[in-house]
Amino acid sequence: MEERSAHGYQPLIRFDNVGLRYGLGPEILRDVTFAIEPGSFQYVTGPSGAGKSSLLRLLFLSLKPTRGMVEIFGQDAATASRTTVPVLRRRIGIVFQDFRLLEHLTTYENVALPLRVLGHPDSSYRHDVTELLEWVGLGDKMWVHPPVLSGGEKQRAAIARAVITRPEILLADEPTGNVDPPLARRLLRLFIELNRLGTSIVIATHDLALMDQYDARRLILNSGLMEIHDVV
Ligand SMILES: Nc1ncnc2c1ncn2[C@@H]1O[C@H](COP(=O)(O)OP(=O)(O)OP(=O)(O)O)[C@@H](O)[C@H]1O
Fold it and tell me: The ABC transporter domain covers which part of the protein (predicted)?
């Protein structure tokens, strides 16, 4: 029988006693057990080097656990084939710490890229991409290339690209790391709005001010172990 969470939903992602080590190094994640529910909002936090980025890599199937089980949309990550991984990833949006925008493409083309890769014609998504870029405040930066964008503008372009396909989960690695407090608050409002529209949000951060602004579940990593603080 399919295992279901306390809320009656099947979780989108499930970690069961997960351990991770790089090569022959020490285990940097140990016995990590948690689930990501549909429509949920959580922070992954903990000191520098605690394993936040590594946890996101496991969530995005860029890494496989060295022990325990990671289940993504009901599929065991350990046995996911090379053809299954991209199919699962299409349901996950990710914002990398270093944005990874393509410099030879305009902001519009960067955001439209995931749809173009899926084979959709430009006419089918032009309206959606333009609307989303306006929504994140980049309406006047659509036709410039990333090198002339500020850090915060790049951040918003990366977020727009991550959500243009309406993923079920959005993973963001230190999304407020390079921006000033007013922009950090704006980005947080953007995540909250996306969450209201149904996307599950996972934000890796050590920005305590950010977490204090919007109370949500905290998955706290420390010495490889995870402590979970639910909102009461
Ligand atoms: N590719 C790798 N090979 C070997 N060790 C790695 C690799 N990536 C990360 N590590 C180690 O794993 C541990 C966790 O790193 P990770 O980047 O996941 O932490 P973090 O919590 O995201 O840190 P920060 O907040 O500083 O970004 C660190 O000790 C790091 O040195």
Answer: 13-231
Q: pLDDT (tens digit, 9 = 90+) per residue, 35-52?
A: 999 999 999 999 999 999
Residue nearest to atom 11 of ligand 1 (CA): 49
Q: Measure 51 CA to ligand 1 centroid, in angstroms.
A: 5
User: What are the sequence ranges of the domains in the chain?
Assistant: 1-91+168-232, 103-166
Please give the number of the atom of ligand 1 that sits closest to the Cα of 54: 18
Inter-CA distances, 134 with 3, 34, 109, Å = 41, 36, 14
Distance CA 17, CA 34 (A): 9
Shortest-distance Cα residue to atom 31 of ligand 1: 49
Please report the ipTM that was assigned to this predicted complex: 0.97
pLDDT band for position 186 (cuts 50, 70, 90): confident
Q: What is the mean pLDDT of residues 189-199?
A: 92
Strands, sheet with 13-21, edge to edge from the N-terminal-most edge strand? 27-36, 13-21, 67-72, 75-76
Cα(224) to centroid of ligand 1, in Å?
11
- Ligand 1 mean position to 138 CA, how many Å? 32
* The pLDDT value given to residue 8: 56
Ligand 1 atom showing the smallest separation from residue 97 Cα: 27
Q: Which CATH architecture best describes the domain 1-91+168-232?
A: 3-Layer(aba) Sandwich (3.40)
- Which residue is associated with the tokens 């010495």? 223
Q: If you take atom 18 of ligand 1, which residue's CA is the nearest one?
A: 51
Give yes or no for a contact between 155 and 187, defined as CB atoms under 8 angstroms apart. Answer: yes
